[in-house]
Structure formats: structure tokens, C-alpha cells
Design goal:
With 332 residues, the protein is α/β, with parallel strands linked by helices. It has 11 helices and 10 strands. It has a 5-stranded parallel β-sheet with strand order 3-2-1-4-5, with helices on both faces. Strands 6, 7, 8, 9 and 10 form a 5-stranded mixed β-sheet that branches. Helix 2 (21-39) crosses helix 3 and helix 10 runs antiparallel to helix 11 (297-310). Bound molecules: xanthosine-5'-monophosphate (XMP).
């Protein structure tokens, strides 16, 4: 399946970079016509994570073929606060999409229980995701196409051997679909302009990168539900404060980590023995190297105060001052 799409794909040399809504609208019109021609009256399946690429693909396909598109949103329990709800609100309620919501939280967290090795955790999350998606696909009749949010850098990086083209393939052999990849020739910034033109909300279109294994790599070691909640709640506070203080569009990536060890502190006049929250905020061009954001000290103090008072189980906040290298952006 992978080879099928990757052979002979070129971004047209004279293709103008999409920077304006007018250009995006022209691209959307072209793609709608092409999608209708490719798909006809058949059905298309899409794994809709809520990230920019899959959301733009969903919105394009809804415009082109409406209810012939079936979106599957798998909630693996490792999404940020409010994300599954937003996917349902935007796509099911506002766009009237055919959306299957799969609550797979227990399934993922049970499989991950007691697993502390980072690579093992990633493997479990990846393979469980395929299993859940394949199970949903098998329940459906008459699907001929699989839509994917593959973008141009995925193709280029695969060809250079930098990373495997993570979007393509992976499904078991009995599920053979023809691929539909309407944003294949676009760079990320162009996908965002197209998303804006399609009317997707800004917090979806201008979303910071988020790893496939989600909060799982930020709840280091063996994931527990209470510590995962501490990651999710502290991340939500950080995002809210960055948004309120003009940093959300400026800083490339920012999030929190909750490691699997505790330290002594004092809460309500009593000894506490709780987790630290680590803040990470970095800037980069290509994620190969990164520098640390100079967050104003007063803002760091405000975020710290909110986290230690609002997040259960946390008594300490740290700021990760490490550039990449030597630290990677994620902790696992
Ligand atoms: P690192 O931690 O390697 O991260 O410095 C570089 C960028 O890649 C993101 N990242 C991932 N993205 N699946 C993804 O889709 C993954 O498994 C994954 N691991 C890291 C990370 O968030 C950062 O933007």
C-alpha cells in the first residue's frame, strides 16, 4: 500500500505556495472535483485524530462526498483535555459528519498498565490503535477507500530515510483500500491556510505538534490514571496561560511532563509526598534542534501557583532549561 502511493509522486514544480484564502479556496475547489471523480458513489474511511492534517482531510471530504465519508475517532485516553469533545462538536454537531466515536480509554490504559519502557509503550499504543481502527473498519460494509492526511514533508522525509512514512500502510492484509490523500502536495503551513478557508476553528488549525502516542510519552514510566490526569490538567493550565499571555502563537511547542517519582513538600501545614510537574517550552524550525523559550518569570510564577493549587497530587513545578541537543523535545 505504501509503495503504491509513494511512487512517482511529485509536488508540481510550478505549484505556487498557498498563503492566501483565495489560493486556498482555489485548491479546495480543485480537490473537491478530484475527490468526487476518484470516489464516485463509494464510501471512504478516515481515522480522525483531531490534528490539523486529518481534520482538513475530513473537512474536504465532507464538502466533496458528505455522508459517504465515515470518520473514526479513537479516544485512546492519551489526548489533551477537551480534544475528543472538540472533534465531536466540530465534526458531528457542526459539520453533520458521519462520525464513529470509539471510547478505547480502558483498553489502552489496561494494556499499558505496568509498562515502563518508553519504546514498549510506543509499540503498544501504535499496535493497539491499528487493532481498534481495523475492528471498526471490519464492522462497516462497502468501504473502498481509506483517506489519510499525508502531507508533502512525510513523503520527502520517507524518501530521504529520515522517518518512515507513518501515515501509509499498517492495516492488516484483509483490509485493502485505495488511498485518498488530498493534502499530499501541501506543506504544513499550507494545510493550515486550507483549514482556515474550510472554516475549522483556530485552535484546531494552528495547533502545536502533538505526538502520536500523545500524553503517554509525557507521563513517564508506567502510566497510572491519576498521574495521567495530572499531566492532562497541568497541560490545560499551561495552554490556557500561554493563550492568555500572547505566547500560544509564538512558542513552537509547550507542554508538561509528570515523571514517575515524588518528592517531599508541605501542603496545608502537613507533609506531602507528591509528583513534580515539569514545564517544557521550546522553539525550533524543524524539530531536529530546539532552544528553550524565555518565559517571563512572573508568568512562570503564576503558572506554578495555578498548577500546585489546582492539580491534585502535585507539590512542585520545574522548568526544563535543556536545549535539543542534549535533551529531546519529548521526555520519552
Ligand atoms: P523529539 O522528542 O524527538 O521530538 O525531540 C521532535 C518532535 O516530534 C514529536 N514527536 C512525535 N510525533 N509521533 C509523532 O507523531 C511520535 O511518536 C513522536 N515523538 C515525538 C515531538 O512532539 C516533537 O514535536
Amino acid at each position: 500500500m505504501e509503495a503504491m502511493t509513494m511512487a512517482n509522486i511529485v509536488r508540481p514544480e510550478n505549484m505556487e505556495r498557498i498563503t492566501t484564502i483565495e489560493q486556498a479556496n482555489a485548491f479546495i475547489d480543485e480537490q473537491i472535483a478530484a475527490l468526487r471523480k476518484q470516489i464516485g458513489d463509494k464510501k471512504v474511511l478516515l481515522a480522525l485524530s483531531g490534528g490539523v492534517d486529518s481534520s482538513v482531510v475530513a473537512a474536504l471530504l465532507i464538502k466533496a462526498v458528505g455522508k459517504q465519508l465515515i470518520c473514526v475517532h479513537v479516544n485512546h485516553g492519551l489526548l489533551r483535555k477537551g480534544e475528543p469533545e472538540q472533534v465531536i462538536r466540530v465534526f458531528k454537531d457542526e459539520m453533520d459528519a458521519n462520525l464513529i466515536y470509539v471510547d478505547a480509554v480502558d483498553r489502552f490504559l489496561d494494556k499499558l498498565a505496568g509498562v515502563s519502557d518508553p519504546e514498549q509503550k510506543r509499540k503498544i499504543i501504535g499496535s493497539e490503535f491499528i487493532d481498534v481502527f481495523a475492528e471498526e473498519a471490519r464492522k462497516l460494509d462497502g468501504i473502498e477507500f481509506l483517506a489519510q492526511g499525508t502531507i508533502w514533508p512525510d513523503i520527502v522525509e520517507s524518501e530521504k530515510g529520515i522517518k518512515a512514512h507513518h501515515n501509509a500502510g499498517g492495516l492488516p492484509d484483509d483490509l485493502e483500500f485505495e488511498l485518498v490523500e488530498p493534502v499530499l502536495t501541501l506543506f504544513k503551513d499550507e494545510v493550515r491556510v486550507v483549514g482556515k478557508a474550510l472554516g475549522l476553528p483556530d485552535n484546531m488549525v494552528y495547533r502545536q505538534p502533538f505526538p502520536g502516542p500523545g500524553l503517554g510519552v509525557r507521563c513517564t514510566g508506567a502510566i497510572t490514571r491519576d498521574r495521567l490526569e495530572a499531566v492532562r490538567e497541568s497541560d490545560a493550565i499551561l495552554r490556557e496561560e500561554f493563550a492568555n499571555n500572547g505566547l500560544a502563537g509564538k512558542v513552537w511547542q509547550y507542554f508538561t511532563i509528570v515523571p514517575d517519582y515524588r518528592s517531599t513538600g508541605i501542603k496545608d501545614g502537613k507533609r506531602s509526598y507528591e509528583w513534580p510537574v515539569i514545564i517544557r517550552a521550546v522553539n525550533t524550525r524543524d524539530a531536529m534542534t530546539a532552544t528553550v523559550e524565555n518565559i517571563p518569570f512572573e508568568l512562570l510564577q503564576k503558572i506554578t501557583n495555578r498548577i500546585i493549587t489546582e492539580v491534585p497530587g502535585v507539590n512542585r513545578v520545574l522548568y526544563d532549561m535543556t536545549p535539543k541537543p542534549t535533551g529531546t523535545i519529548e521526555w520519552e
